[in-house]
Amino acid sequence: MPFDGIFTKTMAQELNALLSGGRIGKIYQMDKDSIVLQIRANGENYRLLVSSNAAAARIHLTDKQYENPDTPPVFCMLLRKHLSGGIVKGFSTNGFERILTMEAEVTDELGDRSNKKLVVEIMGRHSNILLLNRSDKIIDVIKHVDVEVNRVRELLPARTYILPPAQDKLNPASGQALELIMAEAPSNGRKIESFLLDRLQGFSPVLCREACIRAGLREGIPASELTHAELSKLAKVLKDMMASLHEPSPCVVFDKSSEKVIDFHCVPLKQYDSFKRYDLLSQAIDAYYTAKVGREFVNQRANELHKLVGKQLERCEKRLSINLQTYEENKDFEKLRLFGELITANIYALTKGMEEAEVVNYYSEEGDMVRIPLNKDKSPQDNAQNYFKRYNKSRTAFHYAEKEVETLKAEVSYLESVQFAIENAEGNDQLTEIRTELHEQGYIKASGKGKKIQPVQALPLKAVSQDGFEILIGRNNKQNEKLTLKIARHEDIWLHIKNFSGSHVVIRTEGKEVPDSTLLEAAQYAAWFSKARSAPKVEVDYTTIRNVKKPSGSKPGMVIYVNYFTVLVAPKAPLVAEAKAQRN
CA nearest 9: which of 237, 264, 266? Predict the structure, then answer.
């Protein structure tokens, strides 16, 4: 877990420097796990975020604005009653445990001054936020923990607050602890990283690994195999690391290829190649969780939309299958009319009780003989009427199915294009635009009475060809439609993957002749932003914008085009720098 005991201790140090003596103003609770306290200190306004979320428990300053519920939760109201207007006395930790306490001096109902404590326990799924009085009695807790959940340690109002059971670990700031490490290591067969994790208070796996790497130790080497010189070097690294906490160097580590955040800490993590330094711990952790939670939020929204569209697509495909079957079963409806007419024409030669009639087909130039099945329990007139009734029913079913098949194929194609857009959406704005489109098409209802989904207009992706021509790429149906029907000019060149869902791509010609190299480059982008991205070679159609039309009443992004040419290309993504520039 990134927020280890070392980081917690250093965070208390930073908050003390910035917030001690400050006055607590407004208090908000954004969700069931997190609160924000506005604090005025040293002439500056700060927002202190405190979260007990199991996957993101933390405490730090933030510049972000968060939405608040219309009705504040009970815990929030209690915090306002006991902490609003209070003076921050300081922040402290219990050694290097992941427990941080903010003490505030407040005025009670009688006008007397008293101290209250806000305790933040950062312990994974056991994380919690507690409000204590001056006697360490629990006033309330954001997550109640009764005896059924924890027999050793209840966290309920009116109970005395008890610290979690102490672990048998050494204080890493103590010189004696380092001596014990050197003394115990030769007799311990565990990996050195695991040995340090077991013995040092406040150290997380990533920090233990960092210490070993700085000491030049081989990864996974047992503690018992270390030489005295290696142990001495490790002890010095640990000592220097603890000394550096007086002037921390916060950083966020990220993956160089995907730019996804990996970790953060108050010391530079030299075990990683790519990291960014910050002036404050709060800035580092805020940047980390903004990127991490933001990506998770986008992924969650994308999954929800993908699931919704998937259900609609499944429903359409079932209806399409049923109508295709109806179409096939009734496509020979004219044969039923023929049978009825031939029975009528030969009624003088037919009698009740016949199971079959073989008559001449007067409508055939060759005068072929036709065998007509009959119901022996019915008269020839009734058999003829039965065939005419079946004909009318079959003809109606055929024409209805024919129309439905055409409509459903178009809807399936549309929903597949929406799925493709969702799978390739790169941010919340693009997902909001897709959600707006689904709402406008009736697939999503606005949540809440009278509420409307606010439209967001994300711009198409821009790239520049090697020849200097601007290439625009739509990322969803609304962008495709806007790009093709409003942004592009008549002389611009329009491209689209052949027979697959994909983006509309436009080359801005500016009245100039477009060289083949730019045309191929744009075709490669059209292939990349399509469902055929993984294919080695694909066909891409291209024509001028004047040849592209939108059928009346069709779904967003659906167009027809004529007078086109086709080119075979390998899919290729635009240059990363170009894509980045547009996203930023």
Answer: 266
CA dist., res. 219 & res. 271, Å (int): 11
Under CATH, what is the fold of the domain 5-141? ibrinogen binding protein from staphylococcus aureus fold (2.30.310)
The length of the chain is 584
* Residues 488-503: tens digit of each pLDDT: 999 999 999 998 889 9
Q: Flag the least confident range among 43-57, 58-72, 116-130.
A: 58-72
The string of pLDDT tens digits covering residues 147-195 is 888 878 899 999 999 999 888 899 998 888 889 998 999 999 999 999 9
CA–CA separation, 225 vs 244, rounded Å?
A: 28
Integer Cα distance of 541 and 299 in angstroms? 32
Contact 35, 24 (CB under 8 A): no
Q: Which pLDDT score is estimated for 261?
A: 85
Cα–Cα distance between 584 and 579 in angstroms, integer?
9
Which residues of 330-412 form beta strands (DSSP E)?
Answer: 356-360, 369-373
With tokens 């967003």, the residue in question is 556
Question: Using CA atoms, how far apart are residues 580 and 271, in angstroms rounded to an integer?
Answer: 27
- Between CA 296 and CA 269 the distance in angstroms is 24
Q: In the Cβ-directed half-sphere of 419, how many Cα atoms lie within 13 Å?
A: 18
Spell out the residues 6+ positions from residue 135 whose beta carbon is closer than 8 angstroms to its own: 160
Extract the runs of DSSP E, i.e. beta strands, from 261-392: 261-265, 275-277, 356-360, 369-373
User: What is the residue extent of each domain of the chain?
Assistant: 5-141, 175-277, 312-458, 461-583
Percent of the chain with pLDDT over 70: 95
DSSP string, 109-138: TTS-EEEEEEEEE--GGG-EEEEE-TT-BE
User: What is the mean predicted confidence (pLDDT) over 498-510?
Assistant: 92
> How far apart, in whole angstroms, are the C-alpha atoms of residue 89 and residue 104?
5
CA 507 – CA 528 distance, rounded (Å): 16
d(CA 449, CA 584): 35
CATH (residue range 175-277): 1.10.8.50
Which amino acid does the sequence have at 67? E
